[in-house]
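Weekly modeling sync, notes
Attendees: S.R. (lead), two postdocs, one rotation student

Agenda item 3: backlog of single-chain predictions. S.R. asked that every request posted to the team notebook include the full sequence so nobody has to chase files. The rotation student volunteered to paste the first one in as an example of the format we agreed on. Action items at the bottom.

Example entry:
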Amino acid sequence: MPTTPQRRLVHVVPHTHWDREWYEPFQRFRLRLVDLLDEVLPRLAADPELRFTLDGQTAAVDDYLEIRPEAFDQVRDLVRRGQLAVGPWRVLADSFLCSGENLVRNLEIGLARAAELGGAMPVAYLPDQFGHAAQLPQVLRGFGFRQACLWRGVPSIVDSNGFAWVAPDGSAVRTEYLPGGYGNAAVLFSDRDATQGRAEDFAERMRTWFGADEVLAMYGADHGGPLPSLTEQVRAVSAADSPVMLRLATLTEALACRDLSAELLEVHGELRSHARANLLPGVLSVRAPVKQAMAAAERMVQRYAEPLAALWFPAAARPFAEMAWQRLVDASCHDSVTGCGADSTAAQVAGRIAEAEQLGSAVRDRVVDALANRVPGDAVLVVNPSPWPRQDLVRCSPVAEEAWAAVEFELPDGRRVQAQEVDRPERVLVSAEFPAAEIAEAVRRRTFGQVMYDRAVRQAVIGEGVVEFAVGRLGNPAYDVERFATETAARSGEHPVWELRVVDEPRRELLAVIPVPPLGWTGIRAVEATGPADAPVSLVDGVLSNGLVSVSVLDDGTLRITGADGAVLDGVGRICDGGDAGDSYNYGPPVADLLVHEPVAILVCPDAPGPLLGGYTVYRTYEWPIGLADAAGTARAGKAAATEVSMAVELRAGEPFVRVEIRFENRSRDHRVRWHLPVGEVAGSRAEGQFGVVARGLSNEGGNGEAPLPTFPASGFVTAGQATVLLEQATEYEITGGELALTLLRSVGAISRNLHPLRAEPAGPTTPIPGAQELGWRTARFGIAVGARSDAEAMELVERFTLPLVSAPGTGEHGHLGDAVGLAVEGAVVSGVREREGELEVRLVAYSDKPVPTVLRWPGLATARVTDLAGNVVGKLDVADDSVELVLRGWEIATVRLGQGLPQRVIMPPS
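Predicted structure, as returned to the notebook:
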């Protein structure tokens, strides 16, 4: 029956929401995926009316085709015919638990694969993520998307199916809200006889949401497919005398009719409201070590491997960086890095992240090894991962004569900088006796080529009853172990017993503050100190100071930190432990909770007095209940475990912040441990993450049966009052009682609880996850800065805190010291640098609501182009004197491609 003005058109979108891994690990879910697509694909091929939307992620297609490679042509044909919608994402990521660059690579990988499969769905589908980051609209527009479609996080002011979602820079996408979720029509066809009535009821219920728009009915659920009778049931309703007309559609077809130019309600920034759906914010803090590993792996690939390889050794990164990003993107999935899956899933995610870090560190080390060839063998290479000049502390172990009372470092320009001695490694590595008949074989079995005990053989000498090896960083290429062993055997009869000695070079473990060019390197050489040393860091009468910030320990084991402007934070580092009767999705306090925040013992031990690094460790012992009193979570257990929490406090020369490391062995279950610092009466906080900084209040919008706890995510830093906390990983925080509380640990034992104190309905299966209790050692690190600073200034501190300078022994010919500049950037913050199609691609972010003038300098720069995130050229820039200038609008994410004329990069083979 044809459509008439009186009939309401309902687009029925058959789909599945495919959790790639969750309460079962990946391979078990893949078995079910293959079963599903083995059924659905032939039905699509046989029924031109049938449609299927494959959850917006190409990973599901790849997971299937790895088992059924012969189905590729069929999949591509169905996509081209418009019956099967794939992409645009690689996976459906949790946007708060990965870097902004990870989100970009997610779309980049997904779109490229979708193009091979016949074309990507032009809708950014985000059906089940636990909220959405503020800059996502700008990321989507950067890839050419005009529409998004999502469910969770939408605030109560949204009262229709469409709104304009606006990023901090002003970029906006028309966003289709899914009232009732991605399965709002899941039961529409389950009773064949009731289909028409249900369709009419559905259309009527949705009238208040859709108004005059054609209705979107999401027919699907987790891990399922459409009924065999679907097409027939749809035809029957459309042919009946009904006010409703059903039409099968992909999500692309269903949203093609939306007016992208219509004026809609604007919703600005992140979507983290509980009003329309459960937000499940507890995923921010469960399985914290997974989040810690994820952030470290992202930094290794994004800020070390790719930039250093692109500038100094482009071939080193291929194809290893791409392999690393594939693993990082896959780990970012909303049931993966979140930690809300089975223990077996968490183990697989951790392994994936570890592989990414290994790939990244291998690339970094390959580049560093190549650069070390340009530094004399008696010197040390220092590499700067930042696109601006750094003058920070570096640790290295150069050769230094034992007779030297103190050591300095010589720089390429002849200046000298002082060093702080940390240790003198034992020179005698081995001293063992062997009978004469065994000494030659002992030499053979302890030598691997020219290496002995991880050191290169410099000299081998046969003395009176002694065979002595002098070893070091650089060996003697002429040394031959078999020739020397034969000589040793020939002389073995001279003594009945022989001593085998292996003696290392005279090395010292040193610290020094070294200036290094932007994304460049320098060579430094240890020399005998000739003058008196300064003491920029001192520990006097319990006060640790470096002239920029000072810290002391109060009687309760917390810290007093004083900034250069006189601002004081008293009580930094208070530990509070409380029960958690919740699950992986939501924190839940016991009915009668017991908060433990007073230590039973305190001990303060000095570690280093300076002059470049000073610190001490505060040991506090607490009596933490071992778990809950019962499964219902009515109270905490009466029995306690004595738990010592160490807090190492460190100041470095030139750093305007205090470093702290908290470490303890967790022997309790079902509890939450938080680290507090005072911020006073504040109106809210500012937290960095995913290309932006979000201002938040002290509460969150509630609704939908879930308590709106004001716990929020931060990735780079969080600021409240006079305190800025620098972070190594995505961290859950809350402003409460005049303090900023950062979650160190949240131990839980189930994916979901059916009865939860702060959530009205289950969030998943009740699968036990004993691994999420996180028994064992837990370590967390923060930096604390005191005083007002801009977001861009805070980002510079984050870089100094999380991206240490890299050092390595020189391996080149002895001679003069040198240095070299890589890429220098002033103004905008650099998110990433990589080699792309023979050019240098630089991702820039304006960390300000005002325009940010930016200058990029690169030796040999000849061409500069601005591209969108997809790589399409959108403008050209004028180049002068190896530099280019541009102005970013507030909070803009910009991508610039730089090309050289005559290549001036150092492209070297591996050493």
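Discussion: group reviewed the output briefly. The longest helix spans residues 343-372.
Action items: rotation student to repeat for the remaining queue; S.R. to check formatting next week.
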